[in-house]
Design a protein that fits this description.
There is one protein chain. With 489 residues, the protein is α/β, with parallel strands linked by helices. 30% of the residues lie in helices and 25% in strands. It is globular, with a radius of gyration of 24 Å. InterPro entries: Class-I_Pyr_Nuc-Dis_Oxidored (IPR050151), FAD/NAD-bd_sf (IPR036188), FAD/NAD-binding_dom (IPR023753), FAD/NAD-linked_Rdtase_dimer_sf (IPR016156), Pyr_nuc-diS_OxRdtase (IPR001100), Pyr_nucl-diS_OxRdtase_dimer (IPR004099). GO terms for molecular function: dihydrolipoyl dehydrogenase (NADH) activity; flavin adenine dinucleotide binding.
Length: 489
């Protein structure tokens, strides 16, 4: 039966109930949880609606399980380049132990802890599928077909995220393809795995399953991997995948798939026939807004939702779209950042307090979405970027200069890993003399990117960065090399 959770009690819902809250949140992933947390902290009564597991995609099928799978892979790769340690880590990974650790971090796909957290902040959880039913109204259809009607006094926040996009290919329905969900939750290692796509999910899952013993074939329609980063990022990751035994084919599209017994067969536009045990399509994401009742308020079902910098949907004074559904940055950390902004904006408007709209870096403006978005790709080597690539900066009409550094020239890099391979690119707006982009590729660079995020978000002048002295001998000394090259050129 559909139910309301409050103080760990389950209260049956009836069809005739209609309950008003200050804020109704659709989706209980990290984004929805943070909107609810900020709203409750401001004293607003808050309901959260979730049709799957509280904690969302990130907790059970994306960030947490994928990083749990990848951590031993990357740690072993790093250790193999440390003299005195390399011989101790030449054997295969203990895959059952890795999968068990992954299961621990997903709480065995149970959400009791997350439900308890929602209870702890005072939010009320409704299990079921939530849909808009006109302005400020939400219906919740529970698992037993019962319906609950909720009314929002101030705001409804759509935090329903995205789902995997599968291409329209002949034979796909019969193949039972993997998406990111199956790739992060599988309990058996396929002998052969085809990965279709060249983005983050594709390269991370290719890295993991190749290390677990699969023979991985990566099929990329474009020219290379990680197309949204600087070109050298994808080049270095592809080189490493090939060295690990993966077959990486660019300029290749899948035209049809079929399953012959237990074997998947993919046909390509290059005339190849590729056989595997499983096939993963990592070819993009679409918003979970198709069955959300958007048509009841004049919006297109299945569409991305356009928002202003307070995350309020364009043309509305009560509807907010936070996280992936607004298509600003499909990243958990950025969605949680937006949630904090949205929560503050909802609370301010509910209290009649003017928003700080004249301050682009104020509490009510998601300014970082426009130029200070960081991302880490957990491959071997890691790739990390924040801000604009050189091409993006040039398309934006900025007068920029790029500085490249071979990270093997950094003393700390050689100590981190024997034969360290990596590259860094700094993109500087020469009119303002500030950093607008940084890309790093190499072992351990994921832990370096936040310093660049601070520099970009803070618009720190290059002249001031010169006085931020990196510790010796650490990989962060790459900052000194970049600034020296910029100064001396």
């Amino acid at each position: 039966m559909a139910s309301e959770h409050t103080n760990n009690q389950t209260v049956p819902m009836t069809e005739t109930e209609s309950i008003a809250y200050d804020v109704v949140v659709l989706g209980a992933g990290p984004v929805g949880e943070n909107v609810a947390d900020r709203a409750r902290a401001a004293g607003l009564s808050t309901a959260v609606v979730e049709s799957e597991l509280v904690g969302g995609e990130c907790s059970y099928w994306a960030c947490m399980p994928s990083k749990a799978l990848l951590r031993p892979v990357i740690a072993r790769a790093d250790a193999r380049h440390v003299p005195g340690l390399s011989q101790a880590v030449q054997g295969p990974l203990d895959v059952p132990a890795v999968l068990a650790h992954r299961d621990y971090y997903t709480s065995q796909w149970k959400d009791d802890g997350q439900v308890g957290w929602l209870d702890g902040i005072g939010a009320v959880l409704y299990r079921g599928h939530g849909r808009l039913a006109g302005p400020r109204k939400v219906t919740v259809d529970g698992p037993d077909g019962e319906r609950q009607v909720l009314t929002a006094r101030h705001a409804v926040a759509v935090c329903t995220g995205t789902r995997a996009l599968l291409p329209d290919l002949p034979g796909l329905d019969q193949v039972r393809p993997w998406t990111s969900r199956e790739a992060t939750s599988a309990h058996e290692v396929p002998g052969r795995l085809i990965v279709v796509g060249g983005g983050v999910v594709a390269v991370e899952m290719a890295t993991a399953w190749q290390a677990f013993g699969s023979q991985v074939t990566v099929l990329v329609r474009g020219k290379g991997l990680l197309p949204r980063m600087e070109p050298f990022a994808g080049e270095l990751v592809a080189e490493s995948l090939k060295e690990a035994g993966a077959d990486v084919r660019t300029g290749t599209s899948v035209t049809a798939v079929t399953r012959e017994g237990s074997t998947v067969v993919a046909l390509t536009d290059t005339g190849d026939r590729i056989e595997a045990d499983e096939i993963l399509f990592a070819t993009g994401r679409v918003p979970r807004t198709g069955d959300l009742g958007l048509d009841t308020i004049g919006l297109e079902p299945g569409s991305w939702l356009d928002v202003d910098d307070s995350l309020r949907v364009t043309g509305s004074d009560w509807l907010y779209a936070v996280g992936d559904v607004n298509h600003r940055a499909l990243l958990t950390h950025q969605g949680k950042y937006q949630a904090r902004i949205a929560g503050a904006a909802i609370a301010a408007r509910a209290a009649g307090v003017p928003l700080l709209e004249t301050d682009p870096w104020g509490a009510h403006s998601a300014t970082a979405d426009h130029g200070a978005v960081p991302q880490v790709v957990f491959t071997d080597p890691e790739a990390a970027a924040v801000g604009l690539s050189l091409a993006e900066a040039e398309r934006a009409g900025l007068r920029v200069r790029a500085v490249d550094v071979d990270m093997s020239s950094v003393a700390g890099a050689g100590l981190y890993a024997d034969g360290y391979r990596g590259k860094a690119r700094m993109v500087v707006d020469t009119n303002r003399e500030i950093l607008v982009g940084l890309t790093l590729v190499g072992p351990g660079v994921g832990e370096l990117i936040h310093s660049a995020t601070i520099a970009i978000a803070g618009e720190v002048p290059i002249s001031r960065l010169w006085h931020a002295v990196p510790s010796y001998p650490t990989v962060s000394e790459v900052w000194l090399r970049l600034l020296e090259m910029y100064r001396d050129a």
